[in-house]
C-alpha cells in the first residue's frame, strides 16, 4: 500500500497489528514496532487491515528492543517491505551512513516502500546547529528525515519547532517530535511547522515513547491546529 509523506500521516504505533481495526478511521497508518512483537513476519503475513504499515524494527542501541545484528535486523525490515501492506520502513540514520544500511534502503525502495531515516536522542535536545545537520542528513538519505529528541524545557521544544520550520522551508521532508513531558505539545504543534508524521498508541497505556498522546487526542489536536495550511 502506498505511503508517501506529502501531507501529514498519523501513525498508530503498536506491537500488535490486531490494533488496526481500532485505529481505522482515526489513524492514517499503523507503525508496526516489529522489535516489540513476538513473530513480526508472521503477523505481517496474516495482516488483513486496510491501513498501510510503517515498519519499524528499532535497534537496542537506539532505544528499541531488537538485539539482532544490524545486518540481520535490516534483513528482517527488507522482508517486511515485500509485504503489500508495508508502505514505508524506518531505518536508523546511523545505519544509512554505512553500506549495509544503504543497501537495505535500496532494496526497500525496490520493493515499493519509502524510507524513513530516523534519529533519536533519549537524553536531550541538541544545539540548533546539530539539530539542523541531523535532520538535513536524515532527509537526504531517507525519503523522510525523522528526528525525535528529549525536551526538558520550553526552549528545547521551541528549538525543535524552529528547526522543523527551517528544514521544511528548505524543501526537506521531515518528521519531528520531542519526547518527555516538556516536549508533549510538540507532537501536536510540529505538524503546523511541517512535520509529516505523528506517532500515538491506540491506548495511552501502550505508549511507545515518553509523552505520547493517545491516537484520538493527537488526531483532534493536529486537525484543529493544522486546519489552515496556508499560514
Ligand atoms: O521513532 C519513533 C517516534 C517515537 O519515539 C515517538 O517519540 O513518538 C515513537 C516510536 O514508536 C517511533 O518509532
Automatic annotation (TrEMBL):
Pathway it works in: Metabolic intermediate biosynthesis; chorismate biosynthesis; chorismate from D-erythrose 4-phosphate and phosphoenolpyruvate: step 3/7
Chain residues that bind 3-dehydroquinate: 31-33, 58, 187, 208, 212
UniProt feature coiled coil, ranges: none
UniProt-listed HAMAP family: AroD
Gene (name only): aroD
Family in the record: Belongs to the type-I 3-dehydroquinase family.
Domain of life: Archaea
Name used for this protein in its record: 3-dehydroquinate dehydratase
Gene3D superfamilies hit by this protein: Aldolase class I
Function as written in the Swiss-Prot or TrEMBL entry: Involved in the third step of the chorismate pathway, which leads to the biosynthesis of aromatic amino acids. Catalyzes the cis-dehydration of 3-dehydroquinate (DHQ) and introduces the first double bond of the aromatic ring to yield 3-dehydroshikimate.
Catalytic reaction(s) noted: 3-dehydroquinate = 3-dehydroshikimate + H2O
Keyword Membrane recorded: no
